[in-house]
Design brief:
CATH class of one domain: Alpha Beta
Largest sheet: 8 strands, antiparallel
CATH architecture of one domain: Alpha-Beta Complex
CATH topology of one domain: Cyclic Phosphodiesterase, Chain: A
Structural class: alpha+beta
Shape: globular
Length: 176
């Protein structure tokens, strides 16, 4: 079984702003998994396991045709203790609907991945700044992000189907 992720990616200004934080934390802490893996800033809306990639791509094509660009408002810094520091968007109708739609449609062709953490009503939307941190690196990362972060709005412009480990984008669709 292959692990897949469906992600939302942002407008260029937002991507650059978040990437700067990712890069600065990586330089300061030495934890550069996001950068080394070439994972762009994103919000994951579904995690799946499956072996029918063609069916997932076909269904994603159909899903993408129905989705519009959406607003995302980043309001907080969060952690999944002790490994991850992230920017937290406010849950809104766009994020809820996208998560629900993608999961309902793709789970016809794959099974739930990542222990169900990306299912509707079980999901904490987030944009990782650094992952696989030690407790000390997490403290250092938090201090950096705290200095750089203030709440901001973004636009989700693309939806992506990717293999998750290692990260490999399979296809990206522009939202209407």
């Amino acid at each position: 079984m292959i692990d897949y992720a469906v992600t939302l990616e942002f407008d260029k200004e937002t991507e650059n702003k978040i990437q700067e934080m990712i890069d600065e934390v990586a330089r300061a802490t030495g934890y550069d998994y996001m950068k080394q893996s070439k994972i762009p800033p994103h919000v994951t809306v579904s995690a799946l396991e499956g072996d029918n990639e063609a069916a997932l791509l076909s269904e994603m094509e159909s899903i993408a045709e129905t989705l519009n660009k959406g607003s995302v408002f980043f309001a907080n810094i969060g952690i999944f203790n002790p490994l991850v520091i992230y920017l937290g968007p406010v849950m809104n109708e766009f994020l809820q609907d996208t998560c629900r739609t993608v999961n309902e449609r793709l789970l016809q062709y794959a099974s739930v991945g990542n222990r169900g953490r990306y299912l509707p009503n079980q999901w904490v939307p987030h944009t990782a700044i650094a992952v696989k941190l030690t407790p000390d690196a997490l403290k250092e990362a938090f201090a950096i992000v705290q200095k750089k972060f203030s709440a901001f709005g973004a636009t989700a412009e693309r939806i992506v189907l990717a293999r998750a480990e290692p990260y490999e984008e399979l296809r990206s669709w522009e939202l209407k």
